[in-house]
Amino acid sequence: MPATTSGIIRISWIRSGRMAADRIDRDAVRFLVAGGLNTALTSVIYFAGLTVLPSDWSYALAWLAGLVFAMAIYPDRVFPGGRTGFADRLTIGGSIAVVFVVGLAILHVLESFLQNAPVAFFSTLATTTILNFLISRWILRRSC
Description:
The protein is mainly α. The chain has helices at residues 2-49, 55-78, 86-114, 117-141. The protein is globular and about 40 Å long.
């Protein structure tokens, strides 16, 4: 009897590992799609804002809209079946703000080190995208 039980445990453990790998792949695709939509939305807001606002105000408005988008969409659409409470949404917003500040620091370091603004920007973008995905996924997929 113990052999049968341990076999079942082993099989279910293997299956749950595959399911987790499938889920992270699907989460990553949904994250990239939502990020693309968020980028499109915030770009429209930024450029529309430039017609009536200074660039820094337009940027701030677009950034806040993107933050609200992420807090509203990520829990339900990007990481479905995860945590969706108000506190979790606020935590996502806070983590994105922290990653933004970390991204600014990375950008400045890379710009001074590489002396190449486009490479520094795209390197920072890649780094902050990965950080935002991993942190958001951890927040919304962790156990209650």
